[in-house]
Design brief:
This protein has one helix spanning 2-82. By secondary structure, it is mainly α. The protein is rod-shaped.
């Protein structure tokens, strides 16, 4: 008991440091999991962005083809109306 009366502050500080260390290891694990999830989300976002860019390109190409066909269709409509 005499030891506890003299060294109780050191024991409390030691226990407090052990608790903080355990807490920090737990937080480190959670942060690692969050970092991995963040990397997956970033990868998915890059994939979606790539698909969106390629879709925009395809829509632009279709739009150009439709514009080219429009003049031909107008020509055909004019010829049909003349008959």
């Amino acid at each position: 008991m005499a030891f506890l009366k003299k060294e109780w502050k050191a024991i409390v500080v030691t226990l407090w440091l052990v608790i903080i260390t355990v807490f920090l290891f737990q937080i480190n694990g959670q942060l690692s999991d969050l970092n991995a999830k963040n990397a997956k989300i970033a990868s998915t976002l890059d994939s979606v962005e790539s698909v969106a860019i390629s879709t925009d390109s395809a829509v632009m190409q279709v739009s150009q083809k439709v514009n080219e066909m429009e003049s031909e269709v107008e020509f055909i409509v004019e010829r049909i109306r003349r008959r």
